[in-house]
Amino acid sequence: MTEPVSHARRIRERAAAHPGQPVYRHIAADGAEPVFDWRWLDRRSDQVAGALAERGLGHGDRLGLALRNSPQFVLSVFAAWKLGAVPVPMRWDLPDWELDRVREVVRPAVHLDRGELPWLDGTAGREPVALPDIVSPHTHGICSSGATGTPKVIMGTSPSVCGPHYNRPLADVWQRVPPIPSPQTILVLAPMYHINAFSTLNNLLGGDRLVVLERFDAARVVDVIERYRVSTFTATPIMLQRIADVPGIERRDLSSIEWIMQGAAPMPASLTRRWCELVGPEKIIMAYGSSEGVGITAIRGDEWLTHPGSVGRGIWGTEVRVLDDAGASVPDGQLGEIFLRMPGSDRARYLGATPQLTPTPDGFRSIGDLGHLDADGFLYLADRRADLIVSGGANIFPAEVETALIDHPKVADVVVIGLRDEQWGRRVHALIQPADAADPPGLAEIRAFAKSRLAAYKVPKSIEIVETIPRSEATKVNRGRLLAARGG
């Protein structure tokens, strides 16, 4: 694949060249695992496209998709591309009032949610319509709550055109020897409203195969890896922790894995070393980027062992700077705001009233994360500026405290927030999901454990035992919502 072609044309080419090739397997919550080939994906997406056109979806329009990972989701995305429309996946796990706020920003010409599943399935009886070769002005939109909880909708950086990069895995930036086999079998763990999961559809167009979980379940992930010889997946730290905690994981067959990628949050060192033991450090990639696509850094596990805690150096032309509040570069090792610049990364735009990212005079942009560089140019994350806790005049990063506490044997999951406090301004407060509900940790033992790993001023002053940490289906947590529920 050398010449760029539209997504619509690529779907048709795949169906013509490999009509019966199984390329998409759905791992349903009810235990079913149906598989679909290119002929089915092409024909059914034509049928859905014709039905959507009758509902008014056309070139440049937005298609709202509040659907779980499912064949219907994939067909709807393909149908949008075939009409030159822009698919915008949305968090279906939001409460109705919050989803309505997102819809007001997206303003979709057509919106599909779980109530539309019978309608989507009903399109199977239609005669497929002839559709022109057409390009959407944006490949997709991505919705994010942002640090403040206000709707943030990011329009993709490029039109719906396939190029050679669609079958170049991120792992190839290290020019591995031997090269990664193609096609890859990619396991999709996260909901496809998340950019890392949604982007696997590009891999599908590029010739790879997808195995898509409707809902994350760690034990089932391991079964699926063994059964379908999965070669790669992308996961958050909490996903990797839950997979590593599957009983007997050391005896399971993970030999098919060529590489895995971790992103979304700093990775605890103990968990990184555990995965180095499970699959080998050379197969682990830790990356840092954003849905805005301002740039990307990455580090392989064997590099990480000599630069523990780093998220790597810039790849694909990404340059990294760490600046102070006046816009000046800070010395190596000193904390500042992370700015990235990558060729062709300046086209993403927010919809609605969200302020656009303001670039520096020479084109570097930031999404508000803080960190530092070392003398070798490796980047280290601290946390989001918006999540910073100022307690007694000292700056404390929740992610650092969470990383320290997660290794406590009685802690299954943890999130740290800064509650209002008359004495400290904000006090470090840890919400803890115990490993054993009948034997939760107490404040004294949590504080003693934390003191062995953190400076005294970073140690939680209060804890709260909860049945479960309220994470989204993508395993992300909204600290702002947790703060609001506890008085801000």
TrEMBL record:
Pfam families recorded: AMP-binding, AMP-binding_C
Oxidoreductase in keyword set: no
Q: State any single GO MF term.
A: acid-thiol ligase activity
Q: Where is the AMP-binding enzyme C-terminal domain?
A: 400-474
Q: Which InterPro entries match?
A: AMP-bd_C (IPR025110), AMP-bd_C_sf (IPR045851), AMP-dep_synth/lig_dom (IPR000873), ANL_N_sf (IPR042099), ATP-dep_AMP-bd_enzyme (IPR050237)
Enumerate the UniProt keywords alphabetically.
Answer: Ligase
The reply on keyword Ligase is yes
In short, the EC number is 6.-.-.-
EC class: ligase
> Which intervals hold domain AMP-dependent synthetase/ligase?
12-344
Name the UniProt record assigns to this protein: Bile acid-coenzyme A ligase
Q: Which organism is it from?
A: Nocardia aurantia
